[in-house]
Amino acid sequence: MPITNEIVLSPRFKKSLSCNHEIALKAFENLKITNSTYKIVRVDDHVFIRLPNHEQQFWSPQLHLEINEVDEHTAMLHGLFGPNPTVWTMFMFLHFIVAGLFIVFGIWTYSNWALNTPYGIQLGVTLLMIIAWFVLYFAGRHGRSKGKDEMHKLYNFMNATLTDNGLI
Asked: What predicted TM-score, i.e. pTM, was given to this entire model?
């Protein structure tokens, strides 16, 4: 399944493989030694493919593959593109901070308004949190667009690996 030009938040795809899942997993594991272009990590039925550390940028994506056994001669590959886990954790932390401050200052604004006391600063911070949400949203969109070419490279590498080993 080709990746379209419009990249969604976490693009997913599925492929049916005409081999045992262990053979597919071994194909990627063998590349850890011979391949210097990508960093490959295998954990059980999961394979993570990333750019090497010296080529990674802040927005560089990773490709997470899960290869499950369907039967003795067939496997199903589930692929998921995602951000670096450190970047994802930082973005989620920032979103929770902004949401928490929005709720706290929103309640404080309403309380001061109901008590007929000044509430300008609280309203200003509440509105600032809305602006911060938009900034985080557009920063994420910008980062995703910067990582699009790298996503295509990871996808092509995965396809080349599967094709070279006769697994598709």
From this structure: 0.77
